[in-house]
Amino acid sequence: MVLCLHSSQRNPPKHAKFGIAKTTAVMQKALQEKKTFTKINYSGKKLPPLEFDNCSFVNCIFTQSDLSDSDFVDCRFDECSFSMVKLNNTGLKNVRFNGCKLLGVDFTKCRDFLLSFRFEDCSLDYATFHKKKIRSTLFKNCTIKEADFSGADLTASGFLNCDLTRTLFQQTILEKADFRTAYNYSIDLELNSAKKARFSSAGIPGLLDKYQIIIES
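Below the sequence we write its predicted structure tokens.
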């Protein structure tokens, strides 16, 4: 099964739709460049290995899809659903997620080479970034409940106005990370490296949970 673009023109329009075509040829990683895909429903399907360069995806559904072995370079996803998507050996290089649902996504399966992304207004509940090196990653206005950052390198990352309820930080590198507007976090400073990380005074209770002390204003 090979993914192709439906078009009657020799040069397909910028706003294209996914289609499925059968072929007996050896499958190679085809390049999709500078295209916009809108309202594609690829739920539960397996995407053949493709490379997307500088593409935009708007209101697309990839719930429980298999995007393994594909590459996304300088791509943007707006209002897309990726809940429980499979990302085995998937390349995410300078990818932006805006207003996306990424519930339960296992980012540990992504390819490490040049891995970089940012999230804004996204739902990342139950996602896992275990042992991933994702320095300078921006999380803005996100809900990141019960996610797993254990063993990850989050140096200089920012959690701006993010809900971190019951999210796990253990043996995590949080040096120079910004938690000043994050809330509902619980971080054990004895189990994490947080040199020069920034916290607000309102977030101090989240750093002292293990001591079960009462802080009164």
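Residues 1-16, 19-27 have pLDDT under 50 and may be disordered.
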